[in-house]
Task: structure prediction
Amino acid sequence: MTRDGGAFGPLFALLEGMGRGVFHVFLPVSCPVCGALGYELCPGCAVGLLTNGGSVLLDLGGSWLPVHHGGLHRGTLRDVIHRLKYKGLSSLGVPLGEALGEVFGPMGRGLVPVPLHVGSRRGYNQSELIARGISSVWGVPVADYLRWRVRVGNQVSSGDRVLPRGAMEWTGPPMDGLVLVDDVLTSGATLRAAVEALKAGSCGTEGALVLSLAKSFGGSGV
Ligand SMILES: [Zn+2]
Result:
């Protein structure tokens, strides 16, 4: 099938205009980095995408939380995360988590995904999928017990630095050595709220792991 023309030209133009999410249905999936067919993102490229990161310290007001990230939120890594979050490509979540698990060594005794926002229509929690991928590599269990108590919409991702106290709650038993998992570290407000909720639930947080770090984040490097 060619895309250049004939009677189907206008149809292809329309489909392309509607975005890759629709066009994708008509073409075989391929890795956006190397083009390998049959992968939303092939394992080798997933690891390669996440090897330009490091660790930063998130100011918790009196203590610091180490946050490990796979790279800056830009370029192909940003595109892939957008597909996972906004284009419905949930199948990217576990492979990205597995790659993050390959890049960073095992840590903690439980992986806690940042929960999906109240009222979200996404249908899956990308942070939980990432945590499941990491878990399969490290053998550390997923402890999916964190919940939002307030409706915050997209404020957090758009960079709000303050969330109301008690924005999240821990619904599980007291646990120690927990590692938070999220997609992007933007302002740090979400992770701060998560740490506060874990503390209120008699849990200890050892650090956090995210796919990417927003350039706007003002934390200090380790
Ligand atoms: Zn590839």
Summary: Residues 31, 33-34, 36, 42, 45 surround zinc ion (CB under 6 Å). Helices lie at 9-18, 20-23, 43-49, 75-86, 93-103, 126-138, 189-200. The domain at 43-221 is CATH 3.40.50 (Rossmann fold).
